[in-house]
Design goal:
mainly alpha; 0% strand; Tetracycline Repressor, domain 2; 73% helix; 192 residues
Length: 192
């Protein structure tokens, strides 16, 4: 999780509070949506409401921080998978995790995107992180010869997003749709 975009270093206790608030907000937003009570988020984080507002002067700022943090985690996961799995295994696992991310965070992402300029630093950062992650995974899987060469990183992001949105109310269908999609992404004769 990166520090808030203030440009100032944080004291260790302030940093811990910031991180606890973001984590508590992620949990509350996942359970109750982006309108979860801020007082409950502060309570879950073990801080007072004043501390929450010191770090996040509005709900929108908190939503932005949660969104940014979750994108950072998803992006970092791509690189972790590439280090610990074969290229195609990393590619497939990350696509599964991207679909799950969409199913878990769609209402939060929709709320944030509705209230923020598409050219904002957060959007730019998040778009870059996800694009870089998809590019790294796809390039490695294509170089292995197991994934079609005519697929682009943006296609991978669109596919994951489309499956996640389609399966938001029927999550059991996600794995079946992912299997069909992955079969279509494989180089003919490669893999399974």
């Amino acid at each position: 999780m990166t520090a808030p975009p203030t440009g100032r270093p944080m004291r260790a206790d302030a940093r811990r509070n910031y991180e606890r608030i973001v984590t508590a907000a992620q949990e509350a937003f996942a359970e109750q949506g982006p309108d979860a009570p801020l007082e409950e988020i502060a309570r879950r984080a073990g801080v007072g409401i004043g501390t929450l507002y010191r770090h996040f002067p509005s709900r929108e700022v908190l939503i932005e921080a949660v969104y940014r943090s979750s994108i950072e985690v998803l992006s970092a996961r791509a690189h972790e998978l590439l280090e610990s799995h074969t290229a195609v295994e990393a590619f497939e696992q990350w696509l599964r995790e991207q679909v799950q991310w969409v199913m878990d965070n769609r209402s939060l992402a929709t709320t944030m995107k509705a209230g923020m300029d598409k050219g904002s630093p957060t959007f730019t950062l998040c778009r870059t992180l996800i694009s870089d992650a998809a590019d790294s995974l796809l390039r490695a899987a294509q170089e292995s010869g197991e994934i079609r060469s005519d697929i682009e990183p943006r296609d991978l992001i669109r596919l994951g997003h489309g499956i996640g949105v389609a399966c938001e109310t029927t999550p059991d269908a996600a794995e079946r749709l992912l299997a069909v999609t992955l079969d279509g992404l494989r180089t003919p004769g490669a893999g399974r």
